[in-house]
Amino acid sequence: MSVTDILVDFAIASFFIAVGQLLRAKVPLVQKFFIPPSMIAGFIALALGAQGLGILPFSENIGSYASVLIILIFAGVGINGFSFNKKDFKAEIDRIGSYFSYKVLAQAIQFSLAPLFSILVISKLFPNINYGFGLLLAAGFSGGHGTAAAVGTAFERLGDLDAMDIAMTCATVGILSGIFGGLFFIKLGTKKGWTKYMKGFNQISDDLRCGLVPKNERKSMGEETISSNVLDPLAWHLAVMLIASGIGVGLSKGIYAAIGLDLPNYLMAFLTAIVMFLVFRKVGVGDYIDENVVGRISGTATDYLVFFGIASIKLAVIVKYAAPLALLLLCGIVIVVATLMFFGPAMNRGSWFERAIFVFGYSTGVFAIGFILLRIVDPENRSKTLNDTAFAAPFTTPAEMFAWSMGPMMLLNGSHWKFIGIYLVIMAACIIANIVFKWWWLKLPLDRPGVEEIG
């Protein structure tokens, strides 16, 4: 594959992403269901590509882009680092603590119950299914297309050559479940009085519907921390992210060559970026890193990853695994609905629905889906969901990274019960902690007050 082939592939992707945005802006049906333009573009390209009509001149390697883009995305997460606000934590420990526990449980329940169901049920009905099959559901649902690409790549390196397509399918179904399921529960919530900050869909802003921001409501994408006369600020931020990505890939290869431990490239890029963040903050370089610019680069990589992830799905693999995949996806949907409707009100006191619907969206796709659902029901973040999510992120990330990096090896190499056991213990610990600290509010009415009314 030549450099020109890469350019052509991304040019085609860009054209269809632009078409997807145009459809989002002009077609009411698309607006009604909040379908992301990159997902629309991916489905069109899938139909017109090698798996469909075969009229798009894609190179043979478009399936490899996702595993490369995810390295850049995780590097961006690490470069942006984390922060703590001890004062808010002390003043609002009940709200933050219970939400943190709920968010961890939402992840642990997928990491444990989906593989458990796969091993005990699916692998018995379909003996050719390996014990890692269930983790592909969690990678797609809880992780989105980016993590699906990373975990799929890890499975492929361990010999499961169909894993990437299955993971991408799970991620696609997950996002659709998040969008359609989220809208269903929001409509139900408005009728039942669960929502505290909206009364109906007529309150949704136009920029959420069509994706176009009016002139008087536009915000800056970021600050110019480097003089453009010396170096373009975008080039500076991209350079920092690419440095972390390159070092991460080099470390991954070096560790494998030295001791045979096959750590994912994206994990090492993330860890490298975290180290860079800490060093930058210490020496003052962090003052010249703008989180919004890094976030925009990561967001761009994510949109292209979603496109290539869907466009490169091998339909023959999906047909091959249709029955076990259908069972696995049904299991995943049951898990996320139970997490929303049972644990949501049990583990969140004020504004339980707003906080739980965000986690529902986050647990079926990506942060953006959760954010869209939250903006519909709580456009001003009065439930403080985003604040608490930012606080919880540094503590929930290790549990995620362990699952994505060690899960494939443990599930395929005979340590499956140990892996499942770890997350069953975490899940049980979350429930026990909430009961012990009296953060268990299942008996309260579902139309209870919002966060600011409880205090």
What's the short story on this structure?
The protein is mainly alpha-helical. It has 20 helices and no strands.
Polypeptide structure, described:
With 455 residues, the protein is mainly α. It has two domains: 1-60, no CATH class; 83-202 and 311-454, no CATH class. Helices cover 73% and strands 0% of the residues. The longest helix has 33 residues, at 93-125. The mean pLDDT is 86.
Order of helices and strands: HHHHHHHHHHHHHHHHHHHH
Radius of gyration of CA atoms, rounded to a whole number: 22 Å
What is the helix content?
Answer: over 70%
Number of strands: 0
Overall shape: it is globular
pLDDT averaged residue by residue: 86
What does the main sheet amount to?
none
SS content category: mainly alpha
Uncertain runs: none
Q: What amount of the residues lies in strands? A: under 5%
Distance between the termini: 59 Å
Tally of individual helices = 20
How many domains make up the coordinates?
A: 2
From the structure above, extract its key features:
455 residues, mainly alpha, 20 helices, 73% helix, globular
Give the SSE layout.
Elements: H1 3-26, H2 28-32, H3 37-48, H4 65-80, H5 86-91, H6 93-125, H7 133-141, H8 144-157, H9 163-192, H10 206-210, H11 233-259, H12 265-283, H13 291-311, H14 315-320, H15 322-347, H16 352-364, H17 367-377, H18 385-412, H19 416-436, H20 451-454
